[in-house]
Every structure is written in structure tokens, then in C-alpha cells.
Write a structure and sequence with these properties.
Layout lengths: L1 H124 L1
Length: 126
């Protein structure tokens, strides 16, 4: 009977060890599965954050390019207007210079006519 009790207690011990191993294996599988899921979720989150950053960067670049185009158009329009005003002013200045030169020439001729007439009168007196 002692041998049977010894075998029976050894069997109970074996059964307990088997249950402990089974639970440990089940816990290890669960832990491995959770860690695997955590790794996957971390990669997924990183990918989506990068994706969102790229989208936001693209949106900002589009906005920047649009604003840059608007500013360029505005200043090109202003440059064209100022160039046109400069050309008009240059034309007016050239016209005024030509008028001044004509008036100076006419004044010079009139003065010379006056001087010649005066000289002619002076010669007639003597």
C-alpha cells in the first residue's frame, strides 16, 4: 500500500506540475500574442502618424505655393503699373524737354533778330 500511495502522490505531483506547465504555456502564449499585437499597433500608429505628417506637410506646401502665387501676381501687377507710370512720366519729361529746347531756340532767334535790328538801326544813325 505504501508503494501505491507513493505512486499516487507522485502522480498527483506529476499532474500538478503538468497543470502548472500548461498554465505557464498558456500565459506565455497570451503574453506573446499581446506583445505581438502591441508591436503591430506601434508600427501601425507610427505609419499613420507619418502619413498624417506628410498630408499636413503637403497641405502647408500647397497653401504656401498658393499664397506665393497670389503675392507674385499682386506684385507683378504693381510692377507693371509702376512701369507704365514711369514710361508715361518719361514721355512727359521728354516732351517738356523738347518744348523747352524749342522755346530756347525761338527765344534765341528772337533775341538775335532784335540785336540785328538794333545794329542795323545803329548803322543807320552814323
Amino acid at each position: 500500500m505504501a508503494i501505491i500511495a507513493k505512486y499516487f502522490s507522485a502522480f498527483k505531483l506529476y499532474k500538478k506540475m503538468k497543470d502548472v506547465k500548461k498554465r505557464a504555456k498558456k500565459t506565455a502564449k497570451k503574453h506573446f500574442k499581446l506583445k505581438k499585437l502591441a508591436k503591430f499597433m506601434a508600427k501601425w500608429k507610427e505609419y499613420h502618424i507619418d502619413l498624417r505628417v506628410e498630408k499636413i506637410k503637403g497641405d502647408h506646401e500647397d497653401l504656401l505655393n498658393r499664397e506665393l502665387s497670389e503675392l507674385a501676381a499682386k506684385y507683378n501687377k504693381e510692377i507693371d503699373m509702376l512701369t507704365k507710370r514711369l514710361e508715361e512720366t518719361q514721355f512727359q519729361l521728354d516732351e517738356a524737354s523738347a518744348n523747352t529746347a524749342d522755346m530756347q531756340e525761338n527765344l534765341k532767334k528772337a533775341f538775335m533778330r532784335g540785336v540785328c535790328a538794333l545794329n542795323f538801326e545803329a548803322m543807320n544813325v552814323f
